[in-house]
Fold this sequence. Notes:
Layout: E1 6-13, H1 16-25, H2 36-41, H3 51-66, E2 71-79, E3 88-101, E4 113-124, E5 127-139
Antiparallel strand pairs: 1-3, 2-5, 3-4, 4-5
Amino acid sequence: MRVGDTLPPLEIPVTRTLIVAGAVASRDYQDVHHDAALAQEKGSPDVFMNILTTNGLVGRYITDHLGPLAVLRKVAIRLGAPNYPGDTMTLTGTVTAVSGISGTEVPATAAARTLVEIRVVGANGIGHHVTGTVTAEVPA
């Protein structure tokens, strides 16, 4: 991997089931993530995805590309436009940094590893849902 390389985009259909399942799986029982009527009472047009689901999808996007030996070391994301049911979120990524890890920085039994930083954007029909960076460790 080189700085400037891009990851292939990943389109994720935003379904009501994905939103509710992600909220339940992350134990986020806020009504705006599972009850459309209560979400509307609070000013939202519908239920919307929580940050923990988004965080999981960003992690999946990176590990799907980097492979099963990748280890996420840092995920720093910020939410923007909500993900509502019926939309599609398209994740894209660009490599912003690559650096080697010497044998003195990892256990003696570990193989040579490389740190990769990737700028991630998840866009939907109303704007950028998520922006941020992910730092992952991969085999050199």
